[in-house]
Design brief:
This protein is of the alpha+beta class and 405 residues long. The chain has 11 helices and 22 strands. The protein is elongated, with a radius of gyration of 27 Å.
């Protein structure tokens, strides 16, 4: 049902849908090399222009494939999260073209504002339409120009479009500020970890004490108890970003065996990693359950009395040790490319006293708390904006527009 005063039109009636240049064309008569916008550059609500590439086109085709300020750029698909993903082009890179997997929607501004369309197509309403008509295969989805032309835009009068865009723009600015706060908090955490975990910066009271270099096998031991009694324990998996997670909750489906008797038990405070993926940084401290189980491919170990498990975990999660794990995996004689305990335990670590380890943990816990708060604040703002978009961009909630003088 179209709100009072709004109209519903196919996108092709209020905008020009432009397809981009295809890669790999040969025998160009008048080749010109220009920057072009790829799917990787177009994110959900913003552009990532950190890596721009160039493409050769015929000089006579430049106008056909060029982006203009105010074009709404949308990806045709790929992974489900890339379907209809887009934002507004603000001529960030002069003379830029767009590839054929990125549509450019050039709206008729006498009927439709690019800001309003970008928000409507990028919100729940737009995502629902794109998913309803997309061509799907396993984990992939895409739309074509015909489906985009048929997008059922519901359009309020221009003053109302402008007011809605202003309201949501205020939220965008708040989200941008929160994103920067999260970025700064995360950078501060990384810097503190780099300084404190390497001893380049010492906490007050520990300046004169020495660190000892030991092998992991000297301060930790492998734990390889199996779930032989088939106890009803939760299966967990280790991710490279957030550590251990409940497998069912994280993957939204069962990714483990029916027979769990061969799975390894991992207790709270123990550390584990998938032996064939540790070079990606997948290592975790088990702090979810008193006892859980992991796939037999995992290596599980526990620290001795002279080492804080949390401290050792933080040290092993640094980029430096990810590189060490990658090198050790490549050098491993294991034909499956795994890093087993025998090789892992021979890796060296430098450790301060247990007292200093705990003091460092306390400092890093405070910075992690700040990162968590910043992340939660950002998530809250994004959730609130999505809910508001659903109301404003479909006319369920109307805005007051001041009459022009």
């Amino acid at each position: 049902m179209v709100p009072e005063g709004w109209v519903k039109k196919s996108l092709e009636d209020v905008a020009e849908i432009r397809t981009g240049v295809a890669k790999g064309k040969k025998s160009l008569k008048d080749p010109v090399s220009l920057p072009y916008l790829r799917v990787a550059n177009v994110q959900d609500g913003y552009l990532d222009l950190s890596e721009m590439k160039t493409i050769e086109v015929n000089g006579k085709d430049i106008e056909r494939y060029s982006l203009k300020d105010g074009d709404v750029v949308l990806t045709e698909g790929g992974d489900f999260d890339k379907l209809g993903r887009g934002t507004i082009w603000r001529d960030e890179v002069p003379g830029c073209l767009h590839q054929n997997h990125v549509f450019a929607v050039r709206v008729d501004r006498a009927q439709l504002l690019p800001e309003f369309f970008a928000m409507q197509s990028g919100g729940f309403y737009g995502k629902k339409y794109f998913l309803s008509c997309a061509k799907r295969s396993t984990n992939l989805a895409s739309i074509n120009s015909t489906q985009l032309k048929q997008f059922p835009a519901i359009i309020p009068p221009l003053p109302e479009q402008k007011k809605i865009a202003e309201i949501l723009g205020t939220w965008d600015r708040a989200i941008e500020t929160a994103s920067m706060q999260l970025k700064n908090a995360s950078a501060q955490k990384r810097a503190l970890m780099q300084h404190l975990l390497t001893g380049t910066h010492r906490l007050k009271g520990f300046e004169g004490s020495e660190w000892k270099t030991v092998r992991i096998g000297d301060i930790a031991s492998e734990y390889s108890k199996r779930n032989k009694d088939d106890a009803e324990l939760t299966v967990i998996s280790c991710t490279k970003t957030i550590g251990f997670v409940n497998s069912l909750d994280y993957f939204k489906k069962k990714v483990f065996s029916d027979d769990l008797t061969g799975y390894k038990i991992i207790k709270r405070g123990q550390i584990g990693y998938p032996s064939n993926h540790i070079e990606e940084g997948s290592i975790g401290l088990q702090n979810l359950y008193n006892e859980a189980i992991v796939s037999p491919i995992y290596t599980v170990f526990e620290t001795g009395d002279t080492v804080s498990p949390l401290y050792l975990f933080r040290l092993l999660k640094t980029d430096r040790y990810r590189q060490i794990f990658a090198a050790a995996t490549n050098a491993s004689v294991d034909r499956r490319g795994s890093l087993r305990w025998s090789a892992f335990s021979s890796i060296s670590v430098s450790l301060p006293s247990l007292e200093e380890q705990r003091a460092i943990n306390d400092v890093l816990c405070c910075t992690e708390s700040e990162v968590k708060k910043a992340n939660e604040h950002l998530s809250h703002l994004r959730t609130e904006k999505r809910a508001l978009m659903q109301q404003l961009l479909t006319g369920k909630t109307r805005v007051k527009v001041e009459a022009e003088a």
